[in-house]
User: Which sequence fits this backbone?
């Protein structure tokens, strides 16, 4: 014969004690399923942290800024054939004021959009031209 008894005192509040008088066994079961969660805040905190970290990793690539025109132009040719001109971008992804073509040795100044400024190209073997800093470029 099984009987449900709610203990007046006990180690865990909100439990129902199930007593089987024939086998002398006792089982404790929570009255409220959320009671288990309240008793184990460390588990809930751990699961929350795992969820947040997983979300950050899943969205990590989506949270990056889009590539700039300079970065797209550079990435399009960086693994291309040897000798091709590869644009130089700064840490914000903008064209650096002075561009160099490594295989030919020539250099020139560019606008913010990467357009060559006429009259600034230096032939191979000559000193590089001094270009304006990016703040004063067109």
Assistant:
């Amino acid at each position: 014969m099984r009987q449900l008894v709610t203990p007046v005192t006990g180690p865990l509040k909100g439990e129902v004690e199930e007593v089987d008088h024939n086998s002398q066994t006792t089982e404790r079961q929570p009255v409220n399923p959320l009671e288990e969660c309240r008793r184990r805040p460390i588990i809930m905190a751990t699961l929350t942290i795992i969820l947040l970290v997983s979300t950050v990793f899943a969205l990590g690539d989506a949270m990056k800024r889009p590539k700039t025109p300079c970065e797209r132009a550079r990435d399009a040719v960086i693994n291309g054939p040897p000798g091709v001109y590869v644009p130089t971008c700064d840490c914000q992804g903008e064209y650096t004021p002075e561009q160099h073509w490594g295989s030919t040795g020539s250099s020139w100044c560019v606008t913010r959009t990467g357009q060559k400024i006429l009259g600034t190209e230096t032939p191979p073997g000559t000193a590089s031209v001094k270009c304006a800093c990016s703040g004063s470029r067109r």
In short: The domain at 66-138 is CATH 4.10.800.10 (Invariant Chain; Chain I). The two ends are 91 Å apart (CA to CA). The CA atoms of residues 47 and 75 lie 39 Å apart. The chain has a mean pLDDT of 78.
